[in-house]
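Our collaborator T.R. sent over the components below with a one-line note: 'Predict the complex.' Nothing else. No constraints on interfaces, no templates requested, no preferences about which chain binds where. So this is a plain run: every listed entity goes in together, and whatever single assembly comes back becomes the starting point for the next discussion.
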Amino acid sequence: MRGDQSKPSAAKRGIFPEFLGGLILALFGSLVIHESRKLALGDLRAPGPAFFPFLLGCLLTIVSLILLVGLSLGKVESKCGQWKGVHWQKVILSFASLLVYSLTLESIGYILGTFLLSGFLFFLMEKRGILLLFGVSVLVSLGFYVLFKQILFIQLPQGIIPF
Amino acid sequence: MDIFQGLIYGFSVSLQLSNLFACLLGVVLGTVVGDLPGLGPVAAIALLLPITLKMSTVASIIMLAGGFYGAMYGGSITSILVNIPGESASVVTCLDGYPMAQKGRAGPALAISAIGSFVAGTLSILGLTFLGPLLAKFALKFGAPEFFSLILFGLTMIAYLTSGSWIKAVLMAALGLTLRTVGADPIEGTPRFTYGFTSIMDGIEITAIVIGLFAISEVFFNIERTLQNREILSAPITGLWPTCRDLRVSAAPIGRGSLIGFFLGIIPGIGPVVPTFISYGVEKRISRHPERFGTGMIEAVAAPEAANNAATGGSLIPLFSLGIPANLVMALLISALMLHGIQPGPLLMRDHPEVFWGVITSMYTGNVFLLILNLPLVGIWVKILKIPYFLLFPLIILLCVIGVYSVNSNPMDIVVMTLFGGIGYFMRKFGYEAAPMVLALVLGGILELTFRQSLIFFRGDLTLFFSRPIAAIFLIAAFLVILSAFLPGLKKIRSQVPGE
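Returned assembly:
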């Protein structure tokens, strides 16, 4: 009983985000097992296409369950404290802007897309004068275009700007 | 072709003007990237990759190899001047390098780091020159069971040596192997987990995943906190050259560091981090003044720097002779070779001697470039450290975008990079290391192929793995590594080693 009292509960230790991570991995492992069953498994003498993924699915599920048990019993160190006092909103905005950029790159083109992305990212990092951010973004997008497209001959999407 | 003929042929390749330029560019850009805090050799190679796509295979690999050892040296600069290791292998350099800089001896610290790197790099290339071909000949005797057990041992080592929980490292390795199974089955060609997307029939693009996991997640990880301006030594760096006494006391540590780095670098999974810790520990143990370690001892800078660079040459041995990457950077080099249609392994020396010998000999010239360039250019490296963060991080993201897009001209690769950047960010937050996952991704294909071939060959009898001596040795070694993870004493040592 004393041992139980000295160890705070999982909720008190704030490990639920990490617990969720372990759970996602366990579910992913189970999904791999499930999907592998749609392919030929074979046997030890003649392993089929599903043989290796099936084993990996089992490994993922079992080790994830060990992790979950370890987290519950406090045997595995939790890293959840690192969420306090950080600007995670900036990370989400950077992630979202990069995702939007990659999905619209072909239609709007490299120069315009990169100008908008770099302008947004510069603004997100530090609030500076709008003219400075505009100038730096123009320079960066054109500079990258000249360096990679004109000098290194890397194919970049043209988009709506006709050069 | 014997070794001396090979060397002459190699120099005739690497001394061609275009290849010399590729080497110089790789070394300089590698040093610049390694100089930036948080970005190490992995990011350097990932960012150099797009530049190499339009180049010949030899020039590409020469440039990427130059980027690797350039970044290793660049990492040392930040360790000495800012007390922030550019990459994990430079952590130990901070311990005495920064105190030396605080005492006004930044010049000798940087110089001994460059000299130690040069000597160790050259010694390790000599080792690579002679051991590489021997091992390649030996590896021709390897069959599927030997390759399977060697790769399994390598993956076990990297999972064991990651800094966090080994359970999480095993999970990451399993996840990497699982992701690798996406695409056509290596034996029957049956599509697996492709769900009708023909673009992933050849598997998921590894470059996009690696850049996402390492470079993008690193940027995400840094922008979440309000970064203060780095405290960089403002005083001019004077007295660059070490004194005769400095050179005398550093000579033996450089020799020992070179040996430790080279031989440990050969072992799959070890990487350059562990040798630096071991060489520092050895120097401290045999020193007459161990109590002064941590206060600015020049030999404590020289030995780990030598070990760090010697490991580079060592880790190229399994890559060139077995086709097995000893660490993450080598895994990226394998990807680069494959992008150019070359399969590294025992037949590389016979089928592509220009790559094998050209790259080996380019490392001699690359080390000379490093020595000549780095000392006079210290002022420029310091200026690079002063680039404001608000400019630096978006520029890194844009370089990554170009790097990933240029491989296949496919915007979906940028989506994959972004998604894995996000996944990598969460992995860092929850203490999951990316290295086992990436190495598993690179090695997964050959691991599965050799495993299934072995099972067919042994008619399903797993015990027959132990009837082959080399396979048995690697399997037993892997088992011992797993077993040692449960020993309390070794657990403590393991927890003190930072990840790659």
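Summary for T.R.: Chain A touches chain B through 69 residues (CB under 8 Å).
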